[in-house]
Amino acid sequence: MQLGLVGLGRMGGNMRERLRAAGHEVVGYDRDPALSDVASLADLAGKLQAPRAVWVMVPAGVTDATIDDLAAVLDAGDIVIDGGNSRFSDDAPRAERLAGQGIGYVDVGVSGGVWGRQNGYGLMVGGADEHVERLMPVFEALKPAGEYGFVHAGPVGAGHYAKMVHNGIEYGLMHAYAEGFELLSAAELVTNVPGVIKSWREGTVVQSWLLDLLDRALDEDPELAELSGWTEDTGEGRWTVDEAVRLGVPLNVITASLFARFASRQDDSPAMKAVSALRQQFGGHTVRKP
């Protein structure tokens, strides 16, 4: 199958190579000429036979502008796929705009990171049945081998919604491992913290790919001394918590893990300064000066 691919960064570039290895013809465009197969979106459209399918894999902040530019060089019957980390609520308006030109739209939540080229990508897809069915050869090539790793989650927006929840769960899982690591590191009895993490990788109920990656990080830096605790969030955790508030669903763990990332960015927490001041005021408790 032919596929246009816009955005050839860490994810998009690896996806191009995995698709080509599976026998698909991929024409890639990137603003970096060193990565791009063509000089422009118009050139990309010209290289593809109608009806075209073009996958957009760009940062969320430029997705709408990229899709609008792409739509200007596509025709009725073509399909645009957004595989970036877009907010699910952006999908329906995009689909509506494209439908005015007779262009289909499919949203795909993609998981797998830099390991996807080797291991395959988890794909959560939203869109009309006929569009998803037409794209199945591409999805089959990108997903891991076997029965898992792909779902047609529902209509337009469902793919990105599923990926949002996936990433919210990821926040909670990562933070649970992180807290366990910190407690082990503080314990007087445990003298081989990396060894404990490694022992959990097989035969335990907490084994997972994330645990494998923590073990890999500890192999490289047993005390994580080369890393700062400052941790970014890219939006999906916030959107997940927003939806929990809207629907009245208690997300205790995911919300706490998101707020822990906020706390990681404070050198000296104003809130904890206030707590310290209050303890001193009502109880005369000792406080530490900066």
Automatic annotation (TrEMBL):
The lineage of its organism: Bacteria, Bacillati, Actinomycetota, Actinomycetes, Micromonosporales. The gene is gnd. Transmembrane segments: none annotated. This is Decarboxylating 6-phosphogluconate dehydrogenase. InterPro entries: 6-PGluconate_DH-like_C_sf (IPR008927), 6DGDH_YqeC (IPR004849), 6PGD_dom2 (IPR013328), 6PGDH_C (IPR006114), 6PGDH_NADP-bd (IPR006115), NAD(P)-bd_dom_sf (IPR036291), Pgluconate_DH (IPR006183). It comes from the Bacteria. It comes from Micromonospora fluostatini. Keywords: Gluconate utilization, Oxidoreductase. SMART domains: 6PGD. Belongs to the 6-phosphogluconate dehydrogenase family. Residues 159-290 form the 6-phosphogluconate dehydrogenase C-terminal domain.
